[in-house]
Amino acid sequence: MIVYDKKQNVLYVGQEGTSDHALYAVRLSDWHVSELLSFPGGDDAFFMNGGEIFYGKARINPAQPGALVAAEFPEPLRAASGQYIITSRAIYNRATETKIADLSSEALLATAGDDGMIFTYRKVATDHYLIKQKPSR
Q1: Would you give the DSSP letter of residue 120?
Q2: Element (H or E) spanning 21, and its range?
Q3: Same domain, 37 and 8
Q4: Do 49 and 89 belong to one domain?
Q5: 13 & 54 share domain
Q6: Quick one: which of 96, 100, 122, 90 has its CA closest to 109?
Q7: Which residues lie below 8 Å from residue 62, measured CB to CB, with a gap of 6+?
């Protein structure tokens, strides 16, 4: 699994093993490869959104030296937008990492928009959620 960060000119490579996962950064200016982190195996979700990497159950900030894992979720990650993070079982507020709602069933795939529209897919059905939050004062 690979994602490209055009702004940083870095290729992030997520490698799955039978029991472990590893995340590598390939700096394309000189092809330097470094292992960013390694953690126990989990789900194979791997995507980038807003400069952060979402891998397995971890939200990773590659620009943050040292402690790369910004957050870990109890369920495998499925999607993220500017406002929301979707796991296989719940919807979270991205800024606060607090759970907003539980999903009605386990999601295999998901997509989320900043407008509150969230779609999830499972083998037998597609579900739709609309998140309405009170305006902040």
Answers
A1: E
A2: strand 20-27
A3: yes
A4: no
A5: yes
A6: 122
A7: 5, 8, 10, 12, 25, 36, 51, 52, 53, 68
* Closest alpha carbon to 57 in 41, 69, 73: 73
Instruction: Give 79-94 pLDDT, tens digit per residue.
Output: 999 999 999 999 999 9
Is residue 17 over pLDDT 70? no
The DSSP string of 103-118 is -SS--SEEEE-TTSEE
Question: In this predicted model, what pLDDT tens digit does every residue of 38-68 receive, in sequence order?
Answer: 766 655 678 888 888 888 888 988 877 665 7
User: CB-based contacts of 28: which residues, under 8 Å, 6+ apart?
Assistant: 9, 10, 11
> Chain centroid to CA 109: how far?
12
Same domain, 102 and 66: no
**Tally of domains within the chain:** 2
Q: Are residues 91 and 35 in the same domain?
A: no
| Block residue for tokens 């509150």 | 116
